[in-house]
């Protein structure tokens, strides 16, 4: 693929980058009235990007491959996230002081421009991850996703905890990047290539010559998977999640729970796509199996013990990564919706994203004692003071729990169904048990909202956009639970092309992985 | 005719439910809820009516959208339309419109006006999904949906403990039936490999040698039907369900939801005939329920409860009809019953409205001059319920009894059905008697009554009249001050839907039977009974069986009415004397055979004790375990806290070690 084609494919990203640059510029304006436009500029550039993707999809005659699907999802969920995060810069004392005229205008201290620019940069990173056809590209795209989030976490709140968690997130993220970069280097060493399609060719040659891929290539892929596991907060790279999610302001937490995770899963799918079709070395099956089982169990067990709703949702986010890892094992599958792990993961990303953003947005819409609501006490008896938000919270946790008719139920069915078709019955049993355990803390959130005694100190944060976003996410989770057929078939079309190689993958035969796992 | 419009029938009420829900939020919008709700249900009726002739024989599937499609399992929001569905849609949307119209006036001034109509719209949404479902999963969704709405509406007066208890009881008893129903659906999927109604029915028709699993299916499904349609032994929730607002009793607990069980059996008839014992069991349960509930109704004093027991008894008739392979009769009775029972409940609501919540028969008499229209409307309803010749109830009940007797006396006469037929005739006599006992007591005789303790605008419907004196209005602050009123007639607009129902209660039977409409409709649906009905009609006393049964049941109904007139209008002391003479029987019946008490002692109390034991175990063991498990991370946390600045390094170390262990493990162990 030449450069011109490549650039033609990344017009949406270019639109977002231009939007981000414009945000940076406008954010420096002296007049508050002009600075307030930054949020709208971000929204407009997302809409433009969405329009370009839609046009590309129409030209191609459907959502063919994972790239357009991810781009569409990023635009759609990105708009909801933007509504959730729109008020973040305004909540800062610094911004308020300057905008109220209590402090003189100082270009270095206004954050509006930066915040929305970083927001868009990170989304650009996810889209580029989906475009990746080369290891270097993949690395840069992943880092473009993550680096802005470190700054967003650190500057999102007036409290020192935010900076602490931003620094933690940065150092640990850098370490994880080192791990997967090491993996990429090994892959390059084993094949002499960085382009995905050439790596696959080289691996095919290795199989033809020795009957398996070289241990160096396997090690490279294993290390890459382990490093990228940081982005999805999977065990053993999950340690940061609870601290960082708690330290960041809730709107940014919602962002963290969806955006880097999406990039991570896209990268994982791309990395597994480096393996020749239908061939998965036992080491990688084992790795995914163990990571999936540990991640969901650790997430759910630790989720049981929290008294802070944000931490509960952080552990729930870890657990959901575990469920989606199950789908990775069934990556190559038939064209059927059930049995194709890629399609299941793509669908589940949206299902999980809507529900978890809904839950975080409800928390972000509430304040207790001048701080953002985060403990069970803060949301206790919510139904009496904010019935709509309580309803949204209920829908969100029910979807996370995977109760019909919410979208989370369908997502789990597809995910676990694809794993069963590939023979990973044991893992699915673990996953279902985990889902049952998770009911305890999800229902604890719901019952706190509905049956708890309100202490009456919880008030809503000013502004309509955040509760509105929560409502949109939850209603979408409900409606798609009934009418998800279209989304499922789109995910199925998208999942038929599991790598960024942009070439049609024929249906592979039953991978030998299943026999390994059932041992 | 294009069937596309059909799919709007459930979704207009769904939209209405959302809009009514929005109306709840603003006081000024509340009055909009009723028109929205009525309009949505009425348009459903109009759409159904437009399609009355346009349904292809054998039915048609109208796909709406994909819901679940996994591998070989598919359950979509697709609607199955055949004549049986149309009949049900006429009943649900038609009666629904009229009841909602009535309720728009009846509920006026209530705090939860918009909430009420939200639930009613939601109920119609679920109920239409139930009757239109093209697969068992969607049917089950509707089934649970109507159960939920029924729960919400029984507990509508949620600050009244008896209403909340009744709602809970309805919910729990229904769960027992639904468990059977759900198992039945699973078994259908397992044996036939599909949950689609049409495919399952076709598969069932081709079963030549039924296996054990196949013969088990009808019994499991039956359980669900008995729960929803309040048959023995799961009927106990329906009388208590009268705690809900009266329009709800009329719509949900008399005309529509409770008939879902009859509909389900009629719809799945080909599956039920797979077991030779299934339908006879349905018939026996139906027949016994009919007579059992009718005897209880004899000695109740609460108007709504009398009608509730009468509903149970009439539902028994329907099951008897379906069980005797007369689906036409069963569905016909469902159709006519919807008219007259809705009429009876709504007129009872009018009486209650006029007397400020008074429901006790002993505290009212001679209301005919105060409420002439209501009096004669209820009279029409009573005639139909009593099966007075040429009313709607007469034709449908007669069709069922004739079919049962035919099975009893026909060529291969089964004594079981002969017994059930006689039981049915006896029930018809009881029905005529208790129906007119009520009517004569309320409207005839000397005019005297006590007002209840509720006033318009604060309808709390406290009618726990076993100890009526205790019932106090709960929301005293809501009572419109100085609103003194005496028993009075309802406004014409409120009586309008009742007049329509009364017309139906008189004419619907004759019209539906003699135009052949009901028979052709049912016979061209999946409820059709195939082959084998002997052309040879049985004879009774030298007459054609059908004619003979008509004469006998006319006589029986007139006898019942006459006895009721004597005891409860002309010579009331005689009734009291008779009651004293058979005091033990009357007490037994008045206490409903002590079934609630027996259930309490045999099931509820042991379960509660068990629950308390589990709770104690939970407190002692599980809590301790959880505390212990919670202590471990906390202990680790205390350790970690000492290295305050070390948290980041700790995490880094954890990540590195974890990654290293996993790497080594998978590379060396797995390879």
The tally of strands of chain B reads 6
* H-E string of chain A: HHHHHHHHHHHHHHHHHEEHHHHHEHHH
Radius of gyration of chain A: 22 Å
Report the helical percentage of chain B.
55-70%
- Class from helix and strand fractions of chain B: mainly alpha
How would you summarize the topology of this molecule?
The complex is a heterodimer of chains A (519) and B (671).
Chain A: H1 3-9, H2 11-26, H3 32-35, H4 37-60, H5 66-85, H6 88-91, H7 93-99, H8 112-131, H9 135-155, H10 160-191, H11 196-210, H12 215-228, H13 240-247, H14 250-272, H15 282-304, H16 309-329, H17 341-364, E1 366-368, E2 371-372, H18 376-379, H19 382-385, H20 387-401, H21 407-421, H22 425-451, E3 458-460, H23 465-483, H24 485-495, H25 513-517
Antiparallel strand pairs in A: 1-2, 1-3
Helix pairs in contact in A: 2-4, 2-8, 4-5, 4-8, 5-8, 5-14, 5-17, 5-23, 5-24, 8-9, 8-14, 9-10, 9-14, 10-12, 10-13, 12-14, 13-14, 13-16, 14-16, 14-17, 15-16, 15-22, 16-17, 16-21, 16-22, 17-20, 17-21, 17-23, 17-24, 20-22, 20-23, 21-22, 21-23
Chain B: H1 8-25, H2 33-50, E1 60-70, E2 73-81, H3 83-106, H4 113-132, H5 136-154, H6 161-192, H7 197-205, H8 212-228, H9 237-240, H10 246-255, H11 260-267, H12 269-272, H13 278-298, H14 303-323, H15 327-354, E3 364-365, H16 372-386, H17 392-409, H18 415-443, E4 448-449, H19 492-514, H20 517-523, E5 539-540, E6 543-544, H21 545-570, H22 572-581, H23 583-590, H24 595-642, H25 647-669
Antiparallel strand pairs in B: 1-2, 3-4, 5-6
List keywords for this structure.
heterodimer; A: 519 residues; mainly alpha; three-stranded antiparallel sheet; 25 helices; globular; B: 671 residues; two-stranded antiparallel ribbon; two-stranded antiparallel sheet; 6 strands
């Amino acid at each position: 693929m030449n450069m011109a084609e490549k650039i033609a494919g990344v017009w949406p990203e270019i639109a977002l980058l231009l939007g981000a640059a414009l945000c940076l510029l406008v954010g420096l304006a002296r007049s508050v009235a002009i600075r307030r436009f930054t949020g709208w500029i971000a929204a407009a550039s997302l809409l433009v990007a969405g329009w370009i993707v839609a046009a590309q999809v129409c030209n191609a005659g459907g959502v063919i491959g994972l790239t357009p699907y991810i781009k569409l999802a990023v635009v759609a969920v990105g708009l909801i996230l933007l509504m959730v995060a729109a008020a973040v810069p305004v909540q800062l004392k610094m911004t308020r002081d300057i905008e109220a005229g209590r402090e003189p205008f100082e270009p270095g201290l206004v954050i509006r421009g930066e915040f929305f620019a970083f927001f868009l940069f990170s989304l650009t990173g996810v889209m580029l991850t989906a475009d990746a056809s080369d290891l270097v590209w993949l690395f840069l795209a992943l880092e473009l996703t993550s680096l802005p989030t470190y700054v967003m976490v650190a500057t999102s709140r007036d409290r020192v905890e935010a900076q602490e968690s931003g620094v933690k997130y940065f150092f640990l993220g850098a370490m994880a990047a080192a791990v997967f970069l090491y993996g990429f280097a090994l892959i390059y060493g084993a094949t002499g290539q960085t382009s995905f399609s050439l790596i696959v060719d080289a691996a095919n040659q290795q199989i033809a010559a020795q009957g398996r891929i070289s241990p160096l290539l396997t090690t490279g892929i294993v290390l890459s998977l382990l490093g990228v596991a940081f982005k999805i907060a999977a065990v053993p790279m999950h340690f940061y999640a609870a601290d960082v999610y708690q330290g960041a302001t809730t709107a940014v937490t919602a962002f963290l729970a969806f955006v880097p995770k999406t990039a991570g899963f896209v990268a994982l799918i791309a990395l597994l796509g480096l393996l020749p079709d239908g061939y998965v070395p036992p080491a990688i099956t084992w790795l995914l199996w163990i990571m999936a089982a540990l991640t969901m169990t650790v997430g759910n067990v630790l989720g049981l013990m929290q008294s802070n709703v944000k931490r509960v949702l952080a552990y729930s986010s870890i657990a959901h990564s575990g469920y989606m890892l199950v789908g990775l094992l069934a990556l190559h599958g038939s064209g059927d919706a059930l049995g194709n792990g890629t399609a299941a993961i793509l669908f589940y990303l949206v299902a999980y994203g809507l529900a978890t953003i809904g839950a975080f947005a409800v928390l972000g819409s509430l304040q207790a004692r001048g701080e953002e609501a985060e403990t069970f006490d803060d949301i206790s008896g919510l139904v009496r003071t904010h019935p709509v938000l309580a309803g949204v919270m209920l829908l969100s946790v029910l979807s996370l729990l995977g109760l019909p008719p919410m979208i989370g139920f369908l997502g789990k069915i597809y995910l676990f169904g694809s794993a069963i078709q590939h023979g990973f019955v044991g893992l699915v049993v673990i996953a279902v048990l985990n889902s049952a355990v998770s009911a305890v803390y999800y229902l604890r959130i719901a019952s706190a909202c509905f049956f708890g005694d309100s202490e009456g100190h919880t008030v809503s944060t000013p502004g309509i956009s955040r509760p509105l976003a929560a409502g949109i996410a939850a209603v979408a989770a409900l409606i798609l639970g009934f009418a998800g057929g279209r989304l499922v078939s789109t995910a199925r079309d998208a999942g038929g092309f599991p790598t960024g190689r942009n070439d049609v993958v024929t249906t592979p035969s039953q991978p030998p992985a299943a026999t390994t796992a059932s041992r | 005719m294009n069937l596309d419009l059909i799919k709007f029938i459930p979704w207009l009420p769904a939209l209405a439910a959302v809009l009514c829900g929005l109306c709840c939020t603003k006081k000024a919008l509340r009055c909009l809820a009723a028109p929205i709700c009525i309009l949505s249900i009425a348009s459903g009726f109009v759409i159904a009516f437009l399609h009355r002739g346009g349904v292809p024989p054998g039915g048609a599937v109208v796909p709406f959208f994909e819901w679940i499609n996994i591998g070989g399992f598919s359950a979509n929001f697709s609607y199955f339309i055949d004549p049986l569905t149309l009949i049900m849609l006429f009943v649900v949307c038609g009666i629904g419109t009229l009841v909602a119209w009535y309720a728009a006036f009846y509920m006026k001034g209530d705090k939860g006006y918009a909430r009420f109509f939200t639930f009613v719209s939601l109920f119609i949404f679920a109920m239409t999904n139930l009757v239109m479902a093209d697969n068992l999963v969607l049917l089950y969704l509707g089934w649970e949906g109507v159960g939920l709405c029924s729960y919400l509406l029984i507990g509508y007066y949620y600050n009244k403990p008896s209403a909340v208890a009744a709602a809970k009881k309805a919910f729990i008893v229904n769960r027992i039936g639904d468990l059977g129903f759900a198992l039945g659906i699973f078994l259908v999927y397992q044996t036939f490999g599909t949950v689609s109604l049409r495919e399952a029915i076709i598969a069932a028709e081709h079963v030549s040698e039924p296996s054990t699993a196949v013969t088990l299916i009808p019994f499991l499904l039956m359980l669900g039907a008995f729960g929803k349609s309040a048959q023995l032994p799961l009927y106990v929730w329906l009388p208590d369900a009268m705690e809900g607002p009266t329009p709800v009793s009329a719509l949900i607990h008399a005309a529509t939801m409770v008939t879902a069980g009859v509909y389900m059996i009629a719809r799945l008839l080909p599956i039920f005939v797979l077991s030779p014992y299934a339908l006879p069991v349905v018939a026996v349960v139906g027949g016994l329920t009919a007579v059992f509930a009718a005897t209880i109704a004899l000695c109740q004093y609460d108007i709504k409860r009398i009608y509730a027991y009468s509903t149970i008894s009439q539902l028994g008739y329907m099951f008897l009809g379906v069980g005797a392979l007369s689906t036409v009769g069963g569905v016909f009775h469902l159709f006519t019953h919807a008219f007259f029972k809705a009429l009876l409940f709504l007129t009872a609501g009018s009486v209650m409205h006029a007397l400020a919540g008074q429901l006790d028969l002993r505290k009212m008499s001679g209301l005919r001059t105060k409420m002439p229209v209501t009096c004669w409307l209820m009279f029409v309803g009573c005639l139909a319920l009593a099966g007075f010749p040429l009313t709607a109830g007469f034709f449908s009940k007669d069709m069922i009894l004739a079919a049962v007797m035919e099975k009893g006396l026909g060529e291969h006469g089964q004594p079981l059905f002969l017994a059930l037929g006689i039981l049915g005739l006896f029930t018809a006599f009881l029905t005529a008697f208790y129906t007119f006992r009520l009517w004569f007591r309320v409207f005839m005789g000397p005019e005297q009554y006590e007002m209840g303790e509720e006033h318009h605008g604060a309808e709390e419907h406290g009618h726990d009249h076993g100890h009526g004196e205790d019932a106090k209005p709960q929301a005293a602050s809501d009572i419109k001050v100085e609103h003194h009123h005496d028993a009075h007639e309802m406004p014409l607009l409120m009586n309008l839907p009742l007049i329509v129902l009364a017309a139906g209660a008189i004419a619907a039977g004759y019209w539906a039977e003699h135009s052949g409409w009901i028979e052709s409709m049912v016979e061209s649906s999946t409820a059709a009974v195939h082959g084998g009905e002997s052309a040879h009609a049985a004879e009774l006393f030298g007459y054609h069986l059908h004619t003979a049964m008509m004469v006998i049941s006319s006589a029986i109904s007139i006898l019942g009415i006459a006895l009721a007139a004597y005891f409860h209008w002309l010579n009331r002391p005689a009734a009291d004397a008779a009651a004293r003479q058979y005091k033990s029987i009357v007490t037994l019946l008045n206490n409903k055979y002590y079934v609630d008490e027996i259930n309490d002692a045999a099931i509820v109390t042991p379960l509660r004790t068990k629950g308390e034991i589990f709770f104690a175990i939970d407190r002692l063991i599980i809590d301790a375990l959880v505390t212990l498990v919670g202590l471990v991370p906390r202990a680790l946390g205390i350790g970690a806290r000492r290295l305050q600045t070390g948290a980041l390094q700790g995490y880094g170390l954890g990540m590195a070690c974890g990654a290293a262990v996993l790497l080594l493990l998978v590379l060396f162990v797995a390879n």
